Amino acid sequence: MLADAANPVRDRNIVLIGFMGAGKTTAGKLLAAKLSSEFIDVDDLIASERGMPVTEIFRTIGEAAFRRMEKEYIEELCAGKRSAVLSLGGGAFLQEAIRDVCLSTSDVILLDISWDMWKSRLPLIRDSRPILQNKTDEEIKALYDSRQAIYAGHHFKVNAGELTPEAAAQEMFDWLASRARG
Ligand code: S3P
C-alpha cells in the first residue's frame, strides 16, 4: 500500500467502537483531522437524515427500529466509503451483521474504558443516552459488563479511559501508519 508515516494513505474505512461516553466522537474527529479524512458519526448522520435526535427516535419508534436503521446506514457506509473515520454508537456491535461487515471491510479500533473510569463520566452522559434511562446503577454495570463481549472483535485497541483524546488519536494514527509502512 502506498503510504508514509506522516500521512498513511487509506484504502479502508476506520471504524471506532466502544461503550457510550468512551470518547469515540472526540478522538475520532481528531484522528480524521490527522488523516485529512472525513469523519462520520453514524448517530449524527441518522439523526440529521431522519430529522430527529437519537433519543427522539428511541422514544417515538423504539430501539428495534433504530437498530434496523443503524444496520442499514453502517452497511451502506462500509460498502461505499473507503477512507472515512466512522464512529459507531455503542450498541451497534450487538448485531452480528454489523460486526461482520465492519471487521471484513474496515480497520476496527476499540476505544476501551474501564468501569471505574467510565463510572466517573456517567453523570455527564446519563441524561443524553436513551439506553441509560430508568436504569439503576446495578443495571448499568450489567449493561457495561455484557457489552464487553461484543467489543472483543477489533483490530486494535486504545485505552481511551486513561488517555486524553489527543493521545488516543495519536495512538490510532501511529498504529495506522505502522501498518501502512509494514
Ligand atoms: C447506544 C449508544 C449511543 C446511541 C444510542 C444507543 C447504545 O451511541 O447509538 O443511544 O446502545 O450503547 P454512543 O455510543 O455514541 O453514545
Search tags:
single chain; 182 residues; alpha/beta; Rossmann fold; five-stranded parallel β-sheet; 8 helices; 5 strands; 54% helix; 10% strand; globular; binds shikimate-3-phosphate
Question: Can you describe this structure?
Answer:
By secondary structure, the chain is α/β, with parallel strands linked by helices. It has one domain: Rossmann fold. It has eight helices and five strands. The protein has a five-stranded parallel beta sheet with strand order 2-3-1-4-5, sandwiched between helices. α3 crosses α4. The mean pLDDT is 93. Bound molecules: shikimate-3-phosphate (S3P). The site of shikimate-3-phosphate has 9 residues, from loops.
The count of helical stretches stands at 8
Mean pLDDT: 93
In what order do the strands lie side by side in the largest sheet? 2-3-1-4-5
Query: Pairing-aware structural class of the strands and helices?
Result: alpha/beta
Whole-number total of structural domains: 1
Bound molecules: shikimate-3-phosphate
Helical content class: 40-55%
Ranges where pLDDT stays below 50 over 5 or more residues in a row are: none
Identify the quaternary structure here. Answer: single chain
State the CATH superfamily name.
Answer: P-loop containing nucleotide triphosphate hydrolases
Could you tell me the strand content as a percent range? 5-15%
Shape by Cα distribution? globular
Instruction: Write the CATH architecture name.
Output: 3-Layer(aba) Sandwich
Number of strand segments: 5
Radius of gyration over all CA atoms, rounded: 16 Å
Can you summarize the main beta sheet? 5 strands, parallel
What distance lies between the first and last C-alpha atoms, to the nearest angstrom? Answer: 9 Å
The string of secondary-structure elements, in order, is EHEHHHEHEHHEH
